[in-house]
Amino acid sequence: xxxxxxxxxxxxxxxxxxxxxxxxxxxxxxxxxxxxxxxxxxxxxxxxxxxxxxxxxxxxxxxxxxxxxxxxxxxxxxxxxxxxxxxxxxxxxxxxxxxxxxxxxxxxxxxxxxxxxxxxxxxxxxxxxxxxxxxxxxxxxxxxxxxxxxxxxxxxxxxxxxxxxxxxxxxxxxxxxxxxxxxxxxxxxxxxxxxxx
Length: 197
Description:
Blueprint: H1 3-8, H2 14-22, E1 47-54, E2 57-65, H3 85-102, E3 108-113, E4 116-119, E5 129-142, E6 147-158, E7 161-174
Antiparallel strand pairs: 1-2, 2-5, 3-7, 4-7, 5-6, 6-7
């Protein structure tokens, strides 16, 4: 697959999602393309069933298979295994970052927050499929800075039953903030507040 094919796809298989995380889905990425999904075990997406855009709005549907031996069930909690709800929120941020890359954003993605999260269910080891339904409320390229921002609302379901609602989840893609020489200390080896100068 080439970069233009990537930007025109409407779905991605598990192998393609993993290739995105490893940075080898396509070999002709433009200069400045740094967007990556987290590698397993932090990757919270197995496949993208649907991705689309209409103007500055869009939609995504993705899934993750629940496995009885998922890493978080081993420690959260002993005698009461449950997937941390924050990992579902992170999955939404992962999808929004991917949406930016799919729209052509160049740089590194960062979660920027959300306005509201409600958990009214849980994910246990013998559940089947976690499903994300994300409504992109607004996507914007910030031309002067070379950045982009996406805002979305999401419902997370387990075996077709809604269990989380996330409102106004926000992700930005920024240039020149990557740290490719980890673990060596460099000018980008420390975090802190990201202010524009």
